[in-house]
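Quick one: structure for this chain?
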Amino acid sequence: MSGKTFLGHPRGLATLFMTEFFERFTYYGMRALLVLFLVAATDEANPGFGVDRETAGAIYGLYTGAVFLFSLPGGWIADRLIGQRRAVYWGGIIIAIGNFLLAVPGGAAVFYLGLATIVIGVGLLKPNISAIVGALYEGQPGARRDAGFSIFYMGINLGALIAPFIAGTIGESWNWRAGFAVAGAAMLIGALQYRMTEHYLGNAGLAPANVTDEERARSWRNVAIGGGVVVLLTALLYTGVIPVTITGLAQIFAGGMVAVGFIFFAGVLLFGGLDADEKKRVLLIALFFLCAALFWAGFEQTATTFNLFARDFTDRSWLGGMFADGEHPAAWYQSANPIFVVIFAPVFAWMWVALGRRNLDPSSPVKFGLALVLVGVGFLVMMWAAQLVVATDSKVAPTWLLLTYLLHTFGELCLSPVGLSNVTKLSPKRYVGQMMGTWFLGAAVGNALAGLIGGHVGSGEAAAMPAQFLQMCFIAGGAGLVLILGSPWLKKLAGNQQ
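Got it. Here's what it folds into:
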């Protein structure tokens, strides 16, 4: 390991920080544009994909859901075949290629191929880069590891913060395809700096451990068979041999993942050889799986419903003189969440510690409940904004959207940091890895549902929006209140692991 340091930490952390910065720049820059590009007419000055909102939402849901789902095989490929280091590098190259395919003004086949390529690349890079960060701190105190991850987390949010202002502005105000190209170029820079400074990582993530040549050969065969099945199924769907719409496919995808989750939990509970306390904790993890799916289904309206609300119903005249249409890009609002995370994450971390010193730290079910309540209140704010749009037949101030993003960010800070921690803490030791997979599965379900919901909200008359937002407020907020009220009983399920 190199003797050089980065902010007092191993120099390799800088390599991973910058790689993650560029990867998140690419992901959030492209995501800020995706739905806006999909619904833009093909005959506009800046021609888009020309699909309806429902189809655009379904495409978004399939894409983002698959990104989370493919983190599971991505981690397996690294562990069994190529190692985490190579998975990160080739994942970055594949992500760049996918974004460059989106930049090609070709037909639907090229566009969908670009999305699928990005999914594979993110699946390889995302889970493994975090694992390498952890490997840098082997044998070091836990507090130092936590501090390293905090620095790494800043790279995530800085990339997400900057991307909509650069890639979003270029894509929305000039040329959608150029915006995707900028996202691809950012990832290419990230992959190249990773390769040039990789030696600072020492032996972290170098090669799969304890895998024989026979096991590796068998794993490659499994990858080839699985990949072949996916390619065949995709071809059958695309050519219409299997007749299903994109919206229908997104519904099947979301429903299938929920079914997989329930089958897994039922199998572990019935046939996993668990004792009574372990079964209680697995039941609690199953509940957290459902809560996470519901939370992300609301939270991820950011890039669908709220992105389109910013475009159609938000007064964007501030700094509008800089742009041809007199309005700043709607994509800028995609930076609100990472800005709020950067500002308030330290505040929440301090708050939980301060409450803990006084034995007032809320239990995990309460924190999950608060997260859902905050999402519900955010939708209540959007209901008021939509009512104002309908009543005045005019656009509303950006403060409505920004307040909603602030409330949803507070919800994220209640749920996301404690989610993975509780899964690892509550899981039976022999099922930790698989239980961690259910957390990603819950996020995948939530993102798929977010696309389906986002394609529906606002697709008809604007007068229907207040009722739609109120319905989401009741669903999320009601679920959160049930969790909070039931927290004394749910704490008993956790036992001494709470």
